[in-house]
Amino acid sequence: IVEFDTDIAGTFDNDAKGAVAYRFNVTDRKYLYFDAQQGNGAWAVYRPNGSYVTSGRLWEDRELWLDAGDY
Q1: How many beta carbons lie within 10 A of that of residue 68, not counting itself?
Q2: pTM of the prediction?
Q3: Which of 70, 71, 67, 63 is closest to 28 using CA atoms?
Q4: Which of 19, 21, 25, 63 lies at 20 to 30 Å from 48 by C-alpha?
């Protein structure tokens, strides 16, 4: 489980295929800012049951509100 305000860094293999999953919990409705750095890929947020919440590109900053719950 990742705590808020945690920087996450890493790379994928040269073939640009791969995925990494992180879990986090929101105790109260929370404003999130995804500070994009660089890359050629995408990120997505899902609920534990697999339902889609939102997504974005690695090179685009994103602002959003998340309701309390597990992600």
Answers
A1: 10
A2: 0.72
A3: 67
A4: 63
Q: pLDDT tens for residues 6-26?
A: 877 776 555 666 778 889 899
Looking only at Cα atoms, what is the longest distance across the chain? Answer: 39
Q: At a CB cut-off of 8 Å and minimum separation 6, what does 13 contact?
A: none
Side-chain-side CA neighbours of 41 within 13 Å: the count stands at 16
- CA pair distance 32, 66, nearest whole angstrom: 7
- Residue reference for tokens 């040269």: 14
Residue 27 pLDDT greater than 60, yes or no? yes
Q: Which of 6, 4, 7, 70 minimizes the C-alpha distance to 32?
A: 4
Tell me the Cα Rg of the chain.
13
Cα gap 46→35, rounded to integer Å: 19
